[in-house]
Write a structure and sequence with these properties.
two-stranded antiparallel ribbon; 2 strands; 4% strand
Length: 192
């Protein structure tokens, strides 16, 4: 089903999971009661009907509101509908313009399609927002590896691992960097 704005509807009180915690979208955004009448979903209201209001709100309100298009983007990604995913992730970035994880998502989507130059711009944006964000560092390290810049790839992947020691993909890519650079012993250590 599609609503009048061409967006999939969200059920009132719909729950979603974020970092292992379950949230109720309606309960998480503080409202002035006159803004919403009836059963209209809060995130749908902010994103579809009053975009400028949500963009000008504080970070915590925008973070919750950005999850509405983000989760639709993730559903599209999981269905391998990358055009749809890009559309929804772009909407999420418009609301969460200072949220590094949203920028890194679009970078990952573009890198998946070998669009490395625009992917790097999104990873760089995520890095500028948070230079310790492991997914931005991983993305930059991956792109450095693709471009055979092994020293930069190593530096980014090691920094990603310092910030997220259980990041298996970063260990794997670090091993690949070492192997490509001819360091068999370091490659083996990274892969163990």
């Amino acid at each position: 089903a599609i609503d009048r704005d061409g967006l999939p509807p969200v059920q009132p009180g719909q729950k979603f999971e974020l970092w292992g915690l379950v949230y109720n979208l309606v309960d998480k955004i503080p409202l002035n009661p006159p803004l919403i009448k009836g059963e209209l979903d809060v995130a749908e209201y902010y994103i579809c009907r009053n975009y400028t209001d949500v963009v000008n709100r504080d970070y915590s309100v925008r973070q919750i509101a950005a999850h509405y298009p983000y989760f639709y983007g993730k559903m599209c990604w999981e269905r391998n509908d990358d055009g749809c995913a890009y559309n929804w992730f772009s909407r999420a970035v418009q609301i969460g313009y200072d949220m590094e994880w949203l920028e890194a998502n679009i970078g990952s989507l573009l890198a998946r399609h070998k669009q490395y130059i625009p992917a790097e711009k999104y990873y760089q944006a995520a890095y500028r927002l948070n230079p310790y964000f492991p997914y931005a560092l991983f993305g930059l390290g991956y792109l450095n590896y693709i471009n055979k810049k092994f020293n930069e790839a190593e530096r980014n992947l090691i920094t990603a691992l310092k910030n997220k020691p259980d990041y298996a993909e970063a260990y794997y890519n670090l091993g690949a960097v070492y192997l490509e650079a001819g360091n068999k012993y370091q490659a083996r250590a990274a892969l163990e």
